[in-house]
Amino acid sequence: xxxxxxxxxxxxxxxxxxxxxxxxxxxxxxxxxxxxxxxxxxxxxxxxxxxxxxxxxxxxxxxxxxxxxxxxxxxxxxxxxxxxxxxxxxxxxxxxxxxxxxxxxxxxxxxxxxxxxxxxxxxxxxxxxxxxxxxxxxxxxxxxxxxxxxxxxxxxxxxxxxxxxxxxxxxxxxxxxxx
Length: 179
Fold this sequence. Notes:
Elements: H1 2-25, E1 28-32, E2 35-39, E3 43-46, E4 53-59, E5 69-75, H2 83-91, E6 99-107, E7 110-123, E8 132-144, E9 151-158, H3 159-173
Antiparallel strand pairs: 1-2, 3-4, 4-5, 5-9, 6-7, 7-8, 8-9
């Protein structure tokens, strides 16, 4: 009886340890500027589609009725415009008077600016070209400020899909400061 109990305790401990190691090994990171942004499933790395992007991830939404959404990372050392200029430009990617929310969180000397925009997104090339209106869209954006060049994160898609990824977006955005 004592051997059986010891074996069961050992088996449980080993299984728990292996599960923890598997979860830890599933963590990956995006290095952008001086920051390492940690992520794991349901985020998936994907090839970058533009030389302006540092990285791209897809959030694999469990609800098959919702579209998966992509997150892009930008970093322009010594450039890229200021924080407010980028936030203003992103709001202007929506038609009319979109619904916006913004906030700022501080982590020591670093600030993370968050932006949420809802409305009709004007999808298309960033600097000119034909834009396609996408009603019912939402954007989540974050600017992680640094003297070595801020990192810009942006996710845009159908409102319900982006809403489903909102908590994961925020967690990933502040992950360089969570040890």
